[in-house]
Design brief:
Layout: H1 7-29, H2 35-53, H3 61-70, H4 82-99
Length: about 100
């Protein structure tokens, strides 16, 4: 069985892709899924805290709790594209690594 990812490993693996996908998914799906605008705001807040923390682990408990609530534990809506789904999968992995 593989070892769970650390927060830094998950961040390293997914963050650059998330920085590309989140704004696009927000633009494409935001009208039909207004909750994604909140996801984007939280992602931007997390991104800022990560940058400010430097090598230290930032306090993201509140942001991840809100993300879990808004996304219904990263449940992908049935009418969205693969990029939307990928964002939720990556955020869920980073959340799990952070809280793991």
């Amino acid at each position: 069985m593989s070892k769970p990812l650390t927060f830094d490993q998950a961040k390293e693996m997914h963050w650059k892709t998330l920085e590309q996908y989140v704004p696009v998914v927000s633009r494409v799906h935001g009208d039909n899924h207004p909750e994604f605008h909140e996801v984007r705001q939280l992602f931007d807040a997390i991104n800022e805290k990560i940058k400010q923390a430097g090598p230290n682990k930032p306090d993201l408990n509140e942001e991840f709790a809100k993300l879990r609530d808004i996304t219904r534990d990263y449940t992908v809506p049935g009418d969205v594209c693969e990029s939307y789904e990928a964002v939720y999968v990556m955020l869920a992995e980073i959340d799990k690594a952070y809280n793991g």
